[in-house]
Design goal:
mainly alpha, 6 helices, 2 strands
Length: about 120
Amino acid sequence: MHIPETIKSKHITKLSINDLVFLTLLKAQTKNEWLKFKDIQVRIMGVYAERGFSEGYIKKNKYYATPTISAAIRAIRNKKNRIAYDLPNFGEVIDKKKLENSKAIVYKLINLGVNYGN
């Protein structure tokens, strides 16, 4: 999995919410998974827990509510972040769909192809 240099160069505590959401969606893309906001939140918190951060630190510094995750998904589409994350300059980069028989919406990074990062 290709990790953009702009993210690789940062320490885990310095990753922005945009970085965290992008990485979560990128990892899910390798498994062709669609994620709800809650799924994204749980995975972000899980990464910090796996690396030994305390529950208190995670809840205080790495808990992101639905509006924040939604804003991060929108921000990934911005030109600055497209460049930073090696995404295409044009077109949609995040797919979304509504779950059947539910109000929930799920998100997925577009298929970036085998040439992503080259």
